[in-house]
Every structure is written in C-alpha cells, then in structure tokens.
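Anyone able to model this chain together with flavin-adenine dinucleotide?
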Amino acid sequence: MKAKTAIVGGGLMGTTIAWHLAQRTDGLREAVVVCEKGEIGSGASGRSSAVLSQIHADIKLAGMARDSLKFYAGFEGRSGRSIGFQPCGVVTLPGKLTPEERARFLEQEAAYEAIGIRLELLDAEGLRRRVPGIAVDSDAVAVFEPDAGFLDPERAMAAISALARDTGAVLRTGCEVDEVLIEGGRVVGLETAQGRVETNQVVVAAGPWARSFLSRHGVELPLRLLRTHQHHVARPKQCADGTAGSCPADPTDLSQTWIRGFGSQHVGREVLERDLAERFMDENEERPRHPVIVDREHGVLVRCEPARDRTRVHDIAKRHSEDVADPEVEASSTSHSFDAWARAALERRLPGYRGLATVGSDVSWENHAPDDLPIIGEVEGAEGLWVVTGFGPRGYEFAPSIGEGMAQLLSGRPVSAFDPQRFTPSRFQVRREDAPAGRRAGAR
Ligand SMILES: Cc1cc2nc3c(=O)[nH]c(=O)nc-3n(C[C@H](O)[C@H](O)[C@H](O)COP(=O)(O)OP(=O)(O)OC[C@H]3O[C@@H](n4cnc5c(N)ncnc54)[C@H](O)[C@@H]3O)c2cc1C
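re: yes, here you go
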C-alpha cells in the first residue's frame, strides 16, 4: 500500500491527527493510514480520566486547553456523535499555600479572564456551596472552572475514530508496526504485521510505547514512563441523611441540580453548545454528583462517572506511581497500599463516600518529558519521521489543538494551533551517533 502519511498508534493522538489530516487531503490519491497494534484506544487513551481543566502554570498552554474545551463542548452538536462530555465544572484545590503564594493565587483570575477563561475563586464557604459536604479548613481557597468537565474516553475514541474513517482515513487494527524504513536519512516506508506501507511521512504517536519504539531506530527521547494507578468506588446513590455531602442538597433532583446550577450562568453561544451537548446525551443518563475535584493537597483527582456508575480516584501526586521501562510489564492490578491510600484521601476530602464499596481498580501509563511539555515535531537527521508524545496526564486537554497543528505542519502550512518551537524534539539531543540512518528499505 502507498500512503501520503502513515501514523503509528491508534490512540487519541493518532486518530485525531488522522482525522484532521484526512480533511485536507484526497483520500484516494494521498491516503492517511493509521496502524494500531491492538484496538483503537487500547492504550492510555481508553483508560484516561479525560478531565478538561484549563488551569496551567503557563498561560499559553491554558489557551490551548481553552480552545480544546470549546471544541469538545460543541463536538456533539456539530457531529451528532456523543463523546460523553459532562460540563460539571472542575474545582482545583491548591493545598497549603504560603501568604505570598496565596496572594499570587488570588491574582490569577484576571490573567485567565484576559484570555477568555472563566474562573471563580472560592473561599471555604464558597467551596462548601459548590460541593456540599466537602471537608476543608476555614482558610481554604480553590479555583472553580464552571465551563470545564470531562469526557467519556471510550465514547470519545469511538467518535473520533469514526469521524477519521468518514473523512477518508484508513484505520488498521491488529497492525503492529515492526520498523520504520529509512534510506539515506529519509523515511521510505513502514514494515507492519499486515505488510509494507510505502510512505515518506511517518508520525509516531505510540504513547507509552514511543520511547522504546523510537529507541530501536536510534532516536532516544528523554521520556519518563510512569505506571499510574486508579481506584474505583461506588457512586453515592442518595443523600437522604444529609451526610453524603458530595451529592446535591435536594436528593429528589439528583440528575439535574448540578447542571442546571451551572448552566443558568451561561449566555450566548456557549449556552447553545451546552444545550446541544446535553440533548445529544442519553436523556436517562445521570449527571455527575459533584464537580471534578483536583485535590493537590491530598494528591488525588476525583471524578464521578455516571456512565460507569462509579467514582474514579487518580493518584495525581504520583506517590504510588512506578517508573517502568515497558508498558506491558505488570499491567494487571493496583496494589493494596495504593487502594487504601486513595480511599483515605477521598474520604478525608469528601466524607460522603465513607462506607461505599470499592468496585475496582486500574493501571495505566503516562509519558513525561523532563520539562513536562509534549514532544512534537520532525526528528533531526531522519527526514519524514515525526513524533507526537509526552503528554503526561493532560493529552485530552490538548488533543484538538495538536490534531489541527500537526495537520498544518504535515501539509507544510503555517501553524496556528500551537507554537511548534515550544515542543520541538530538537530541544533534546535525541539522535544517537550510531543511529541506523542509512538502513536500506527491506533490510531487517
Ligand atoms: C491514568 C491516566 C489519567 C489521565 N487523565 C487525563 C486527564 O484527566 N486529562 C487529560 O487531558 N489527559 C489525561 N491523561 C493523558 C491522556 O490520556 C494521554 O495523554 C493520551 O491518551 C495519550 O494518547 P496517545 O495517543 O499519545 O497514546 P495512547 O492512547 O497510549 O496510544 C498509543 C497507541 O499506540 C499503539 N502502538 C504502540 N506501539 C505500536 C506499534 N509498534 N505499532 C502499532 N501500534 C502501536 C498502542 O497500542 C496505543 O493504542 C491521563 C492518562 C492516564 C494514564
């Protein structure tokens, strides 16, 4: 098969790039092919918390996250496909702050508002109003993002891959890429489990596998691969006794209270997009019992998932994460010590969860570059070899911008969706001296 562009990996990044690129190319003459070794979304993307917050230390990244959130908010209305977008709001608790940090924290609202991100700074009383029953000290502060929320990663992957196919991209599953063929320092093709693909443009979007895959080709990315854990607790069913404070105050209106409360503050296009998003959701589907809680003090992210009838607790402090060389290693289950720690952190912040059953656990992998920025761009010394990886725990927040920007880059157009210099692989020394740059096509 001949392809204009071949993508290694059918996760969020590979399928999003394929979708954006296919919109700009003639699928018959310039095929875009995704080769996925397993099923679409079977890597980190299908196991993600997929929370969409816009709070970033770097205001430019916050702008990318803002663009992505707008994109997802209007997605279902535009495409007719559900991605399970839940605009339940995100509360970020920064933890203990020094007086100087607290003053800086309270000043940030203006910077975010200047780029169109709505924030509410909350004190302890405001927090208790937003999240009834939350346990916080009297001097607590937090940020509430009323427009933010999360996606259902499985639905999102199904929707994005269907749109990629609809626009002409070819998505091959069970198609492991064994080797990128490089001749005279230029990409000439791929060797896959389903035969050879002739192409001059290869994008490695292999997520946690990117480091080892590229290393086999003489490209050393300084990525840290972390095996991270998630603990799942039954969702609170009701708040009849008033102690399950993570629920809305009125237990007779659990499915609507939160969303109505948030939605009534919106005006203009955003209201329309939100209304549309809600209409496209199954009307019997319940809403989250509370906003997403990003609790930096206790090191957990808490996300209530009506679609799975559970609440997910994710170790954002990485206290229980381990460095691994390979994603396949010990992928089975989390440790008892993590489960006990996650449960304690959850109950300290949201005592309404006390006594609710543990309903499972999960592990997945995150890729981190030393500067915690993604690595996106063409590899020096291997023309036509592109890499898109290193998103840590925030790939969903950036994916629409990355898809758009990569399609611009690969078509040789000016890039408006992000600053390519910021993410370039050449900020690290990645090509080994002994890189097999002269490997002949067909040589194995
Ligand atoms: C526990 C957890 C929670 C997270 N929470 C959030 C969050 O709240 N918000 C947020 O924005 N982001 C979050 N993320 C991050 C986000 O999920 C990831 O950044 C994103 O899913 C990465 O997508 P990807 O396409 O790069 O990788 P992946 O989804 O891992 O896709 C890579 C694909 O490549 C395939 N592959 C690998 N090698 C080969 C090969 N040789 N041939 C063919 N195919 C190959 C794999 O099978 C895999 O499907 C979280 C991540 C984790 C792990």
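The chain has twelve helices and 20 strands.
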